[in-house]
Write a structure and sequence with these properties.
Keywords: Disulfide bond, Hydrolase, Thiamine biosynthesis
Order of helices and strands: HHHHHHHHHH
Number of domains: 1
Number of helices: 10
Mean pLDDT: 94
Number of strands: 0
Catalytic activity: N-formyl-4-amino-5-aminomethyl-2-methylpyrimidine + H2O = 4-amino-5-aminomethyl-2-methylpyrimidine + formate; 4-amino-5-aminomethyl-2-methylpyrimidine + H2O = 4-amino-5-hydroxymethyl-2-methylpyrimidine + NH4(+)
Bound molecules: N-[(4-amino-2-methylpyrimidin-5-yl)methyl]formamide
CATH architecture: Up-down Bundle
Protein name: aminopyrimidine aminohydrolase
Helix content: over 70%
Structural class: mainly alpha
Pfam family, one: TENA_THI-4
CATH class: Mainly Alpha
CATH topology: Heme Oxygenase, Chain A
EC number: 3.5.99.2
Strand content: under 5%
Shape: globular
Radius of gyration: 17 Å
Length: 225
């Protein structure tokens, strides 16, 4: 039998699915922030919808934390995930402040279909029977798409409008990048020990996150039309 090396699975999956991955991490919506051509109505649409998403993301992250506390064979997993969960409290406050600044009434945001699909997907991942390796892969993918995307808007030659810099720094900065790398190490370690079936489930979950993120960006951009 040929031994299959499973370590560094994430790097392999990113290379294998590079078109979809790049579609999610360099979406035209992000590129329009980066080159300064963004229509602010798109940003406002994204803001209102993402607030709804993040509220749903809290119980999802809590469910990953619960699975980490039961299943992780490294006790530092729990600390990494807890730090992610804790930062969501500040994030929700930021959304409220930002929404007030842009006159986006958060109380009557109509949840868009793409957002609804994404939230439903998160709900399906909260079921207790879903393996820790699979859900932590989802958490890594969700966070990393935002990290990579917004880091493009902070690159030296970017022309990001100053009003949007704060949003870009929230996810694009080095600190959040560090968090994503910690998650990636956790995922790689879990996948090394995962069964073939779990590996397939985790890869499918990764791809589904990329698709849902692309649809989320598409939805935000439709606001300009
Ligand atoms: C649609 C989407 N994906 C990922 C993130 C980043 N995670 C938490 O903030 C987000 N806010 N929204």
């Amino acid at each position: 039998m040929v031994p299959v090396k499973k370590s560094g699975m994430i790097d392999r999956w990113v290379k294998k699915h590079l078109v979809l991955y790049t579609g999610a991490t360099s979406h035209p919506f992000i590129l329009s922030i980066r080159d300064g051509t963004i229509d602010f109505s798109s940003f406002k649409r994204w803001l209102g919808q993402d607030y709804i998403f993040v509220r749903e993301f809290v119980p999802f992250t809590a469910s990953v934390l619960l699975k980490a506390s039961k299943n992780a064979d490294d006790s530092s997993d729990m600390e990494v995930i807890l730090s992610g969960l804790a930062s969501l409290s500040d994030e929700i406050s930021w959304f409220k402040q930002e929404a007030a600044k842009w006159d986006v009434p958060l109380s009557d945001v109509i949840v868009h279909k793409s957002n609804q699909n994404y939230c439903r997907f998160l709900e399906s991942l909260m079921l207790p029977e879903l393996e820790y390796s699979v859900v932590v892969t989802a958490l890594w993918a969700i966070e990393t798409v935002y990290q990579e995307s917004f880091s493009h808007c902070l690159e030296d030659d970017s022309k990001t409008p100053p009003e949007l810099l704060e949003a870009c720094k929230r996810w694009g900065s080095e600190g959040f990048g560090e968090f994503c790398r910690s998650l990636q190490n956790i995922v790689n370690r879990c996948l090394e020990k995962a069964s073939e079936e779990e590996l397939i489930k985790a890869e499918v979950t990764f791809l589904r996150v990329l698709e849902l993120e692309i649809e989320f960006w598409n939805m935000s951009q439709e606001g300009a039309k």
